[in-house]
Amino acid sequence: MPAKLSVNLNAIAMLRNRRDLPWPSVTGLGRIALEAGASGLTVHPRPDQRHIRFSDLAPIRALIDAEFPGAEFNMEGFPEEGFMRLVEEHRPEQVTLVPDDPAQSTSDHGWDFRRSHDLLATIVGRLKRLGLRVSLFADGEPDREALKIARDVGADRIELYTGPYGGCHDDPAEAARIVALLGETADIAFDLGLDVNAGHDLTVANLPALVARIPRLAEVSIGHGLTADALEYGMAETVRRFCRACGQDL
């Protein structure tokens, strides 16, 4: 089955936040994305609300529940207590835990599973008791022992951090090397019983090689590149282009 596309709404929210005005509409563009074939919407509500605002979460939840009941809401963030309260209030289908410092501009590394074992065990257990799927942000270097910890603390999936892959857009040899490493990491995860997502700096150009190497890839979460393309092609056509790049037959 082709990878599903979850559209990250953060860049849209950041553009809106440049003015004290309600446009571009986060829910309006989310609706267009879902109508065009996206399987879900992703947000990363940071404590300073510099892009997604806490007040966006209920309308996004309501949009999915009322109009797209087959779609999924994915909330990602560092598991501090404020984020956990938001998760408990809005009940996303999936929670993606990232090891970000609140001051970071964007996620740029996966969990150190060895050092974070106890924290993750506690947090993942709390989320699983709510009946939520849990994905843990993971670096692309194959490390079986680290991924075994991800499984043992109760995660359902990992999300491969693909920033280095996106960063070598002008170096085909390096891109091929990184795809091979990402594929090895995914193979280990599958062998351990984990499903695999991917996200960060993925584009229409680099997705096909990734999904060819990881045909069991469950989901990609894409924001920056997709939003940039939407300025050129429009949101609906951009979503269709990304879905096709994932291998979907639209």
Taking strands numbered 1, 2, ... along the chain, how are they ordered across the largest sheet? 1-2-3-4-5-6-7-8
Number of domains: 1
Give the integer mean of the pLDDT values. Answer: 96
Helix run count: 11
CATH topology: TIM Barrel
Q: What is the name of the CATH architecture?
A: Alpha-Beta Barrel
Shape designation: globular
CATH superfamily: Aldolase class I
The residue ranges in which pLDDT falls below 50 over 5 or more consecutive positions are none
Helix content: 40-55%
Structural class: alpha/beta
| Top-tier CATH class | Alpha Beta
What gap, in angstroms, lies between the N and C termini?
A: 13 Å
The main sheet comes to: 8 strands, parallel, barrel
What is the radius of gyration?
17 Å
Number of strands: 8
Q: Beta-sheet strand percentage?
A: 15-25%
Order of helices and strands: EHHEHEHEHEHEHHEHEHH
